[in-house]
UniProtKB/TrEMBL annotation:
Gene3D superfamilies: 3.30.1120.10, Alkaline Phosphatase, subunit A (3.40.720.10). Residues 1-21 form the signal peptide. Residues 27-340 form the Sulfatase N-terminal domain. The keyword Calcium applies. GO terms for molecular function: arylsulfatase activity; metal ion binding. This is N-acetylgalactosamine 6-sulfate sulfatase. It comes from the Bacteria.
């Protein structure tokens, strides 16, 4: 009998171990998405009346992005961009998806390949806990879009953080099953995220967990314990601001519990944590967007600039910062690259993995676009903006005149130069019209069978 070389026998014996190691060579991924969190409603920007130690720790242990943008100043379009890597209008979600058919302005394009489905190609187990807001019926439910597991909220917002209904309807689900739960929604989402992480102990596959809080979206209903702490610490704070700060700090406390679970489970060292918001903060509810102009729903910087930070122990240098202009849609190709995946279909986002490795890396110049389609005073029409070469052209509502700002000289958007920078206006207007034409070719309502 012919003897096999010793090295072949050893390779055969080691193959299961090597295969397991290969499966775990990619990082676990935890995306934490806040809802309507103001650009400066985190204490790592030294905002004096708020304490977010757990979000701050993500920034301290990793990289902070000071020019990170949502693709839209409202919820659904930004979430569509995050999960598809595309401008939201290119996947049929230029506006909010709501449960009222007369007031919904998006329908996720059938066939869109979402990030969890892509990550599954690299062996990831995928889950979403919290807010979905990209469809209420098949085929646009989380489990049909690449998530192995869903435990959370289907619709846009809660009418009450304890009663868990919207327009009298319960949209809490575990996978496809309606569920009843007791407790504050923020705490429930934290608890369900912890439960999921515990199911992944000992798994040979990495996990992709998308934890999408509804906090601090209206209604501003913090737990009484957190509100009392804020009022005791900040005696001069207004009631409105105190409630918002308390709700944010309640969310931050939950984030701390999730991170503590990662550490206790031995998962933290190989977990990349991404923290983001879906748009800027709502000013009339007390949000702090720093000194940038305006807030949620607008095309000014306060509506689209968001807090963002990413950590990954031993891979991202702690305490680093980047001022490169990035968008939510850039998360998709970045995570794909880190998971060793090629993206073979059309996307608009660009990977910034090089910045995670070297915070001084620069992105290639590109125009970036923002959109919002809405009902009410918008009449179903759109507002939009484009930024190119650090000039920004925007139309803040469908009936407003265009405005032009030089963000290098005027980052607070106080000096409209549309009458003095004609060449820039023409260039940006052409870019915007071309983007509108492309987006206009994509249906944003469910297509009825003829």
């Amino acid at each position: 009998m012919k003897r096999q070389p010793t090295y072949l026998i050893l390779l055969f014996l080691l193959f299961p171990i090597l295969s397991s190691a290969q499966e775990k060579s990619y990082p676990n991924v935890l995306i934490i998405l806040a809802d309507d969190l103001g650009y400066h409603d985190v204490s790592y920007y030294n905002t004096p009346d708020i304490r977010t130690p757990n979000i701050d720790e993500i920034a301290r242990q990793g990289i902070r992005f000071d020019n990170f943008y949502a693709n839209s100043p409202v919820c659904s379009p930004s979430r569509a961009s995050l999960l598809t890597g595309r401008y939201p209008e290119m996947v049929g979600v230029p506006g909010l998806i709501r449960n009222q058919v007369t007031d919904t302005f998006g329908y996720l394009t059938p066939g869109s390949q979402l990030l969890p489905a892509l990550m599954k190609q690299a062996g990831y187990k995928t889950a979403i806990v919290g807010k979905w807001n990209l469809g209420l019926d098949m085929p646009n439910l989380p489990n049909q879009k690449g998530f192995d597991y869903f435990h959370g909220w289907l619709d846009d917002m809660l009418d009450d953080y304890w009663k868990h209904t919207r327009n009298g309807i319960n949209f809490l689900r575990e996978n496809g099953k309606p569920i009843i739960a007791e407790g504050h929604a923020t705490d429930l989402f934290t608890s369900w995220a912890v439960d999921y992480l515990n199911t992944q102990i000992g798994s040979e596959n990495p996990f992709f967990l998308y934890l999408a809080y509804t906090a601090p979206h209206a209604p501003i209903q913090p737990d009484a314990e957190f509100l009392a702490k804020v009022k005791a610490r900040e005696p001069n704070i207004t009631d409105k601001r105190a409630k918002l700060v308390a709700l944010i700090e309640q969310m931050d406390d939950g984030i701390g519990k999730v991170i503590s679970t990662l550490k206790a489970n031995g998962q933290f060292k190989n977990t990349l944590i991404v923290f983001l918001s879906d748009n800027g903060g709502q000013l009339d509810l007390g949000a702090n967007n720093g000194n940038v102009r305006d807030g949620k729903g607008t095309m000014y910087e306060g509506g689209i600039r968001i807090p963002a930070c990413i950590s990954w122990p031993e891979h991202i240098k702690p305490g680093t910062q980047s001022t490169e202009k990035l968008l939510l849609m850039d998360i998709y190709p970045t995570l794909a690259e880190l998971a060793g995946l090629s993206v073979d279909h059309k996307i608009d986002g660009v990977s910034f993995a090089s910045i995670l490795k070297n915070s001084g890396s620069k992105m290639a110049p590109r125009p970036i676009f923002f959109i919002r389609r809405e009902g009410g005073s918008y009449g179903g029409k759109i507002s939009n903006a484009v930024v190119n070469d650090n000039f920004k052209l925007l139309q803040n509502t469908p009936t407003s005149p265009f405005e032009l700002y030089d963000l290098t000289k005027d980052p607070l958007e106080q000096n409209n130069v549309i009458k003095t920078e004609e060449a820039k206006r023409v260039t940006l207007h052409r870019l915007l019209m071309k983007q509108m034409q492309k987006g206009g070719s994509v249906p944003w309502q469910k297509q009825e069978e003829q």
